[in-house]
Amino acid sequence: MASLVMLQQQTNPPFPILTSLSGFNGARLHSQILWQQTPEPKVAAFHVTATSEKKLSRFFVKESHLTKAFAVPRRNAMALIFSSYIFSDFGFHNTAFAQQSVGFREYIDTFDGYSFKYPQNWIQVRGAGADIFFRDPYVLDENVSVELSSPSSSRYKSVEDLGPPEEAGKKVLKQYLTEFMSTRLGVRRESNILTTSSRVADDGKLYYLVEVNIKSYANNNELAVMPRDRVVSLEWNRRYLSVIGVENNRLYELRLQTPENVFVDEENDLRQVIDSFRVNKVSA
Question: Is the pTM of this model over 0.85?
Answer without folding.
Answer: no
